[in-house]
Amino acid sequence: MRQGCAILVVLLLAVVLGGCSLSRERVRRADAVIAEQSDHTLSCAREDRCAADSPYHELYRESAQAGGPLHFVTLLDHGADSLALRLHLVRSARTSIEVQTFIFAGDDAGYLFLDELIKAARRGVHVRVIADQLFSLGDYTLLARLARTHANFELRLYNPAFDEAATQPLEFAANLLCCFFQFNQRMHNKLLLIDGETGLAGGRNYEDRYFDWDPEFDYRDRDVAVTGAAAGRQMQASFEQFWNHPRTRTLAQLKDVNRRLLLATREPAPPWDTPVWKRPDRVAAISRQADDRTWITERFAANVFRVAEVDYFSDSPNKPLEPENPADKKLTRRIIDLLDSARREIVLQTPYLVISRPARRVFRGLRERVPDLRVIVSTNSLAATDAFYVYALSHKYKKRYIKHLGFEIHEFKPFPGDAAQMIQGYETLSGLHEPPPQSDVTPVPTDGEPAGPRLGLHAKSIVIDGRISLIGSHNFDPRSDNYNTESGFIIHDTAFAAALRASVLRDTEPQNAWVIARRPRPVLVERINNAINDFSTALPLFDFWPFRYATSFELKPGCAPLRTSDPAFYDCYEPVGDFPGVNLPLKSIYTRIVTAFGAGLVGIL
Asked: Model pTM?
């Protein structure tokens, strides 16, 4: 009892103390320290800021001189490619660089990108970065140093908990108690904009696992780069809205960084030096690629799609605190409208198959109006996901998705057959570490030890009727609808749509994914099971029925892939259980517990 009261008192103190904002005088003094100690010297005296020669400059000139709307679009399916192009574009910047990200990690990929941004600032390029506070550079000492690194480099944090850069466990708990809805809403946008001309958006954050660099777990993710004036203006306007919003705080406004800065009169910040890399050989190799104009041209610029209509969409930075604001769910509403226009096929890829209520209404209406419409879904299996608790909610509603909405679901394998083609250097990564120990969160393949790092889907993409494509940060789930701010490109072009569709469908091929289908049962047993299953699923708290409507299937040797509606499906596919690839009982138990009790957490998880 005493211990519980003590914890409550501490939490209340954290809430009270955390609620005390900095005075304007303290912020002004910290800003003065930043202005006084920031480096103003430039490493380049040329008018173009010693920008690297880039084929993307030529693409932009062609776009600007075109008689009508013209964009050049680059599909980025491989993480290492996406990082190399980012480095190249940053080095090609002449005036400005804008960055938005949900995660900015302190590993090789994160520090490499940060180092490039600082070098660009020293050349004379104006660099601005907005990072969501919760998972970005949580070391206030580092941030106080970055605040004074160079006058051309500015970093701000979105929605900081208690106005601090670092969130301690106690403060995390206090935020959940006092300010849950504000704390739970995050900036999930990803944006990189170079000179207002070429912009990137998609699913990737700045961390090793998004760029094929993690030896244990990497994401199968996707970005798109767009060069053109119209999309550039849209991205610039969105960035400015976030940059100037009250929920985006300067480093001087963060209490822990502010304290460090006010000590800086006695402790000037050391100059920024190139970080010490964990894998210097890999950093050197990708740096050479980024400098190689011929390689950049052959790999990217020579393979762009020429597209007239491209739109960049972003939610309001005050979502969801202004429900009446038309921009509050701008991207979500646009996605719903596009889905509702489908007449032939929807190909959807999301790491978390938990469809929001508005989207379910659209899919239900589509099935009634367009009964032949195909909805092909690529998503994570339990063995591949990085969030088993979210997968549990997907598992709970499999019957709804398959029987009532007509989804054809393919769940990504953690060790797909095409892994070496999906992840650059996959074989090299596999030799960088010992096989991870078995635990409740580390699945292993059913046929033995891992041949390389485990993979999981993180891409968020839609192709509608082979003509409209969406690539962005939106997971098409209740959290993306209602809590996080999201952004992305909508591209109207059949050639690009065909390339994106092929990329997504590759992830659904038998060597890379399991098929989810109804369990074959005798008719009477099926009817009884369905009745109990429906009743159990509808319960608000306890979904107790363990015999689910659907399970995972593997293609038998010698058979060709079939749709689940094909009469020969069960002859060519064999069931492999609800959670294939997971031989760890605890993870399966946790998943079933969340399935049973997690219905009310759909919008949060």
From this structure: 0.89
